[in-house]
Amino acid sequence: MEATPPARWNLADLAATGDLAREYGVGKATISNWISRYPDFPSPLVELSTGPVYSSSQVRRWHDSRKWTPGKHGK
């Protein structure tokens, strides 16, 4: 899924890997695994020197659309 940046980003929607890990109650390694294992994981909006920045609402839609095995995905 390729991200198309909006004309203006909602700063409250921006999330780094650590923010996503906190949101879903998992470690950063789990988020990295999602990124590498699932080709439909949302693309970062931008890559900064500190790492990728994602749209938390895009990631939430992706996460909520998946059929997770209980106990295997965090929250």
Indicate the overall shape: globular
Largest sheet: 3 strands, antiparallel
Beta content comes to: 5-15%
What's the β-strand tally?
A: 3
Structural class: alpha+beta
* Contiguous runs where pLDDT drops below 50 for at least 5 residues: none
Rg over C-alpha atoms, rounded to the nearest angstrom: 12 Å
In whole angstroms, how far apart are the ends? 23 Å
**Helix content bin:** 25-40%
H and E string:
EHHEEH
Count of helical stretches: 3
Q: Roughly what is the average pLDDT, rounded to an integer?
A: 87
Strand order in space, largest sheet: 1-3-2
Task: Give your account of this protein's structure.
The chain has 75 residues and is an alpha+beta fold. It has helices at 17-24, 28-37, 56-65, and strands at residues 14-15, 46-48, 51-55. It is built from 3 helices and 3 strands. Strands 1-3-2 form a 3-stranded antiparallel β-sheet. Helix 1 (17-24) packs across helix 2 (28-37). The radius of gyration is 12 Å and the shape is globular.
A few lines on this structure:
The protein has 75 residues and is of the alpha+beta class. It is built from 3 helices and 3 strands; from the N terminus they run βααββα. Helix 1 (17-24) packs across helix 2.
How are the SSEs placed, and which strands pair?
Blueprint: E1 14-15, H1 17-24, H2 28-37, E2 46-48, E3 51-55, H3 56-65
Antiparallel strand pairs: 1-3, 2-3
Helix pairs in contact: 1-2
Which features would summarize this protein structure in a list?
single chain, 75 residues, alpha+beta, three-stranded antiparallel β-sheet, 3 helices, 37% helix, 13% strand
